[in-house]
């Protein structure tokens, strides 16, 4: 059988007890915008064009979060157009590969519909916000919907779900380390990382205001 790490992720996704994640509630505003900092890290000395797409997409994602827009593929697609500076960014039409070819994400006629359903689940309140944000990030990573920029798309999606609850992380680096489709422990660990980053952002903000 041909390896399909998307199928593996969908199995892991069901097996993880996401209820074990700790809840966090807004408002939480970090002293800086962590996603803008991630965009700045893409810039080269003396020029900012490499990060401009992510900056523009994040501005739009925050606007959409404030407006209460539901997350679906079409919304993610609009952000990705800004990320890549392209007029169209369709759902991929071939199996995708990542991690130097070590992971392969399959494709069937149902894949785009299943992805949209997973995106919609990020808005259901029956799980802690940290779990929904982490699961959504991994959904985007392992569905790998676009030909390019899926890591940035995943970060935007996570930031969007948190922004809907008025949470702005000041650090996102630990979220962006390499993740694997067959790792249930790592999946739940990501939810715990989101919680830790949110609590730390709130603590730093309080320290600044108190000082």
What does this structure look like?
The protein has 211 residues and is mostly helical. It has one domain: Fido-like domain (Fic-like fold, Orthogonal Bundle), CATH 1.10.3290.10. 55% of the residues lie in helices and 5% in strands. It has helices at 5-15, 34-40, 49-66, 73-84, 111-121, 129-143, 150-164, 184-210; strands at residues 28-29, 96-98, 103-105, 167-168. The strands form 2 sheets. The chain has a two-stranded parallel sheet with strand order 1-4. The longest helix has 27 residues, at 184-210. The protein is globular, with a radius of gyration of 17 Å. The termini are far apart.
The main sheet comes to: 2 strands, parallel
Rg measurement, Å? 17 Å
Instruction: Please indicate the count of domains.
Output: 1
Q: What sort of overall outline do the alpha carbons produce when their principal axes are compared?
A: globular
| Overall CATH class | Mainly Alpha
Beta-strand percentage?
Answer: under 5%
**N-to-C SSE string, H for helix and E for strand:** HEHHHEEHHHEH
CATH topology (fold) name: Fic-like fold
Strand order of the largest sheet: 1-4
Low-confidence stretches: none
CATH architectural category = Orthogonal Bundle
Taking all residues together, what is the mean pLDDT?
95
Question: What is the CATH H-level superfamily?
Answer: Fido-like domain
Oligomeric state of this protein: single chain
Topology, number of strands: 4
Helix content bin? 40-55%
Number of helices: 8
Task: Name the structural class.
Answer: mainly alpha
């Amino acid at each position: 059988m041909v390896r399909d790490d998307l199928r593996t992720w969908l199995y892991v996704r069901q097996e993880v007890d996401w209820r074990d994640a700790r809840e966090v509630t807004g408002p939480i505003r970090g002293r800086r915008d962590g996603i803008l900092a991630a965009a700045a890290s893409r810039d080269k000395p003396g020029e900012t064009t490499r990060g401009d797409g992510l900056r523009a997409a994040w501005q739009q994602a925050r606007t959409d979060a404030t407006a209460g827009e539901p997350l679906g593929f079409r919304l993610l697609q609009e952000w990705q157009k800004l990320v890549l500076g392209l007029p169209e960014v369709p759902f991929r039409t071939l199996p995708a590969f990542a991690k130097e070819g070590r992971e392969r994400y399959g494709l069937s006629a149902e894949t785009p519909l299943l992805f949209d359903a997973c995106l919609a689940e990020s808005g259901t309140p029956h799980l802690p916000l940290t779990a929904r944000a982490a699961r959504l990030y991994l959904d985007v990573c392992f569905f790998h919907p676009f030909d390019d920029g899926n890591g940035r798309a995943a970060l935007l999606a996570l930031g969007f779900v948190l922004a809907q609850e008025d949470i702005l992380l000041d650090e996102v680096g630990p979220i962006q380390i390499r993740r694997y489709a067959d790792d249930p422990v790592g999946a739940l660990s990501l939810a715990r990382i989101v919680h830790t980053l949110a609590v730390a952002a709130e603590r730093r903000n309080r320290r600044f205001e108190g000082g």
